[in-house]
Structure formats: C-alpha cells, structure tokens
Design goal:
The structure is a homodimer of 318-residue chains. Chain A is mostly beta strands and 318 residues long. Chain A is 10% helix and 33% strand. Chain A is built from 4 helices and 23 strands. In chain A, strands 1, 2, 3, 4, 5, 6, 7, 8, 12, 13, 15, 16 and 21 form a 13-stranded mixed β-sheet that branches. Chain A has a 4-stranded antiparallel β-sheet with strand order 20-19-22-23, with no helix packed on it. In chain A, a hairpin with a 2-residue loop joins strand 19 and strand 20. The first copy, chain A, is globular.
Chain lengths: 318, 318
C-alpha cells in the first residue's frame, strides 16, 4: 500500500491516507504513517488532486549509505585520481554516516540555495549545488540497544520505501569533509517522497555478486529492488537508472548499523546513497553526469525524482 | 538552575525536578526539561538519594564538534605523522559531524563493549574502547529552516549544558571512517549528564586567540566557559583539564551549523568534541593519554566524568 499524511484544501488538520489510484482513502486524524496499523481501515474517498501531502513520518535518525559501486567509483576517480577509486573498507562493509534528521522535508518543498565556505574564508552561496538520486527505507519496528539485528531478520524492521533527494553543495562539502565527513554540504535540506510505499510492493531480484564475500554478520544471498528510476531536470530526463544496481542491500545495512549494539527507532530513515548505473546516462548526480565540470543547479531549476511505485520527489531551487 | 527528569523509588512515573543542594524540588509530571518553563515553580522536596535520574530531554539531532586545538593536533600527530597535524579547514570553521541521537543515554547506564570490523573482515569485540570527555550544549529555542542564526544572537538558543562521554571504539572507527567520517565507532552509546545546568550558571572567560581571524559569519569576541573538568578511571583521576581551553565557542558553532540554512530544533545536542589541554595529563581520551599504546578500557572498568556545576557522567563497561 501507499500511505501518507495529508490535509484537505483550506484545512490544517492532518489526516492519514491510503492512496488507491486517483483517490486517497481518508483513514482519520494522524501525523505519522508509523503511528498505527493502516491496513484494514476504510474511509471517505478524497480525489488526490484535492489533497496536500506532508512529511509522512517524523524522522528519528537519518543515515545515508554509500552503496552504489558505480557512484563510489566515480567519486573516487574524480577526487583521488592517483589512488584506487574505492577505499579498502568499501567492499568490506556498507559505509554510511549520519545526516541531519531535522532538515528532512517532504517533496514539493522549495530548496534555498545554501551558503558556506567554498574555499578557506570564502563564504557565499554554493556554486556547485547538486541533487542525489537515492532510495530510502523507513524503519517501522524498533530494536533494542545492545541487541544487534541478524541480517536474515533485518527486513522485519522495514516498513517501506521512499525516494530521497540528498541535495548536496559540492564546494561546501569539499572544503569541510576531511576528516569527519559531510556536514553543511548536506544538512540544509533532504527531500523525501510525500508518501511511503510499503516494502511488499517493491519487486526484488537477485543482487550483484559481492566480491570478496562479506563477513559472516553481513552474509545473505544478495538481493536488490528492481525499481526503475529517473531524474528530470527542468522537464528533461537527464538520467535513467535502477535500484537493482546497488552493491549492498538494506538487510546488510541494518545488520551493519546494529552490529555494534546500536538500536533502531521507529522513524529511522536509511538511505542508499546516490544510485548510479554503469552507463554514462545512468548516473544519479550532476557531479557525475558532468564529471565535475557543471553546469550545476541554477536558481529556478526544478528537479523531479521518479521511481516506479514510489511518490515522486519534486524540488525547485530558490 | 539544575533540572532533570526523575522517578521516585518503586515508581515508574517521571517527574521534572530542580536540584537544590541535597534535595530535588518535585515540579510535577513530565519527561523533558525543555517542555515548559521550570523557573518559578515550587513543589515537594525529595532527598536526592531517593531519586533515579533519567535522560533529561529527548535528543533531536546530535552534533559532535572537534573544537579542541590540542585534541585535534594530538590526533593529527598520531594518525598523519608525515603531514601538518591540522587539516586546512580546521582554523577556518568549527568542524563537526552528526552522531546517532537514538543511542544517547543518561549517565549511569552500563555500556556494552561494541563489536565491529577491527580490520578488513576481522569482526569481533573492540579492543580499543575509549572515553571522550566533552561538554554538550542543549538547544532550548528552535530556529527556522532557511534562516541562519547570527553569531551574536546564538546564545539565545541555548538552554543549558551537560557533560558528554562520547564513547569511542578506536579500531572500528579507524577502519570505517574514510571518507564519510565516524559511524559505528561512536554510535553504540553516548552518555550525558542526567540533569542539565542552565547556561547562566557557567562562568565565562575570554577565549583563546583565533588565528587567522574567523570569517565574518563567525566573528565575535572569543569566549569560553571556565569549567574545571576531570576524568576518573576506576576511582583514580587520570586527567584534569578545563573547558576554557577550547578554540571554537558555542556561539560560533551554532552560527556555523545554521549558516547553510539548517534549522535548530528544541532538544538538539551540540557537543564540543574531546576537550584536551596543553599538558600531558590534561588530555580527554585514553588514546591521547597513552599515545595510542593503551591500555584501553577493560570489561568492568568504570569511567566518571566530572565538571564543576555539572552532573557527573558515570559508565561501567560490561
């Protein structure tokens, strides 16, 4: 099912809704699709054109992974051309970091161009504003502190999926990120689908070969979701790819995230990192599509992420 | 004032309380010191020995900075001995990253030794478990998305301060952290003071010289809090230092954090990063005190952080 939080025109009261074709079934008051079981309920039908969607759940912790081999390889080739493109840890564990959950917004929200230090002491509006095409998984069932989630049971914790635009200011990020990782280059805004698709609606396929074999706590037959994806920039499709290209799967990411005893909370958002495929037009960011030469996003540009079965994520730069 | 959330013996009902000497003034039901104005209220006096403290507020986003010049220099010397110890960005902006807010726990909580990849494919219990002595600032007044907080108004957003033990598994962190920063080496647990000291109770002093002068958005007469600090390991003081040594101040950190338009939420926790002073016994972590030779923390070890006017943070490794 596809579920979200909406208001009707000229109302501020938030309702839970289940999308069915062109109508939304009104499931009553609520501000998070994770707050109760939504399956069996029926209600008034509201035309989808008459609803305003909002953030579908409160984001607890937001983790962004780096699970596309092609994306990580592209970034390594651009920024560390004299070294192996992948760092020694990349094939051994799903690299990730925490992002800012307080600035996750619903698709449709306008994105203000961030300012920051583009070089030492040079503060001003980012001149390398970019999108990142990602999938995000929403945790619906928490886990306990000190109790790692086994990889084969990890999917029980996933409620559903959204598209994620992890907006990135490449100049701000480049100056700040050594040694503690991305911070202000990402934290100004992250847009997600305004409704959530439950996991049972995503078709899964056999995943890519993982070489070397992952360590035991990450070992599971690799799988991926077969979700065709595209990025539209000012009404023109600039990239088409598929989530099935991802190297690490969400079960491995959950097992890894909790392997040190960290707990999951309802509302945690685990994003895949930029999804790029092997082809030159299958790349999920402008920095890859233009090989860091730009043009990057201009004021007024509108980016739309689309994925089969998922709510589109729209954002205009202002 | 000093405020927290407590339960009385043999009760599970959480109350807000104001600590006054050896008694806690019961301010009525509540589970966050940020939920309402606590100043004028009076109530029943409960002996402090009869209360159990809990996490004093729900942590929204947790940011850990890296604002001790001495700590950053020590880490650079140990891990990049062939390079300048400070990265080029260090004196230009207060480096920071997001940590896991879902695993912030109240002081007194036992800490389970985390497992992780200590080297490629070598998964097991961390053999380099460490503490980090930090101060943390709690946001009491939010700011709006897209509206940077000017450095001279930043303190208006701070409710108070806590001590922070940012437990660190050095081996897990070393293998994982390039290029996206610390993740599982930190996320298993972060302990904070079980009550919060409001900012007006911390004596401030002139801060260290900042050279080069910070860019305009971070420019303010430097200040620091004069808070004597100590770390006790198994009942022996192993380090004594002071928060006044910090290079970057909390006003600059808030101005930096919001300079890209990111918002603050009530409950955001902004930690200073490890506080080390210039002397060899003024270092705030075992990796610095033993220059990465150990011994690191053993099972059964108990660490207590103390700071004048702040609630101690106790944690035993299990």
């Amino acid at each position: 099912m596809k579920v979200g939080v909406f208001t009707k025109r000229q109302s501020v009261t938030r309702h839970l809704g289940r999308l069915e074709g062109d109508v939304v079934i009104d499931l009553g008051l609520g501000d998070s699709v994770l707050s109760r079981d939504l399956v069996p309920r029926q209600g008034e039908e509201v035309p989808v054109a008459a609803v305003q969607w909002h953030l579908p759940f409160a984001v607890a912790d937001y983790v962004d992974f780096y699970s596309s081999l092609e994306h990580a390889t592209n970034m390594g080739r651009m920024f560390r051309p004299d070294q192996e493109p992948l760092t020694p840890n990349w094939r051994r564990l799903p690299i990730g970091y925490h992002g800012r959950s307080g600035t996750v917004v619903a698709g449709g929200t306008e994105i203000r161009r961030p300012s920051g230090q583009r070089k030492a002491g040079d503060f001003g509006p980012s001149q390398k504003l970019d999108f990142e095409l990602e999938l995000g998984f929403v945790i619906g069932k928490p886990s306990r502190l000190g109790e790692p989630v086994p990889v084969e049971r990890a999917l029980e914790h996933v409620f559903g999926a959204v598209l994620v635009n992890d907006w990135s200011a490449r100049d701000i990020q480049a100056f700040e990120y050594v040694p503690l990782g991305p911070f202000l280059g990402k934290s100004f805004a992250t847009s997600i689908s305004p409704w959530v698709t439950t996991l049972d609606e995503l078709p899964s396929v056999v995943g890519v070969d993982q070489d070397p074999a992952p360590p035991a706590y990450l070992r599971i037959d690799n799988f991926a979701y077969d979700v065709p994806l595209e990025v539209e920039l000012n009404a023109e499709v600039v990239s088409r790819t598929n989530a099935r290209h991802l190297y690490w799967n969400i079960a491995q990411q959950i097992a890894h995230l909790t392997s040190n005893g960290a707990s999951l909370r309802t509302g945690d958002l685990l994003a895949t990192g930029t999804i790029s495929g092997p082809g030159e037009r299958e790349r999920g960011s402008l920095i890859e599509l233009t090989w860091n030469e730009g043009p990057f996003l201009q004021d007024g540009d509108e980016v739309v992420l689309r994925g089969e079965g998922l709510a589109e994520v729209r954002g205009r730069i202002v």
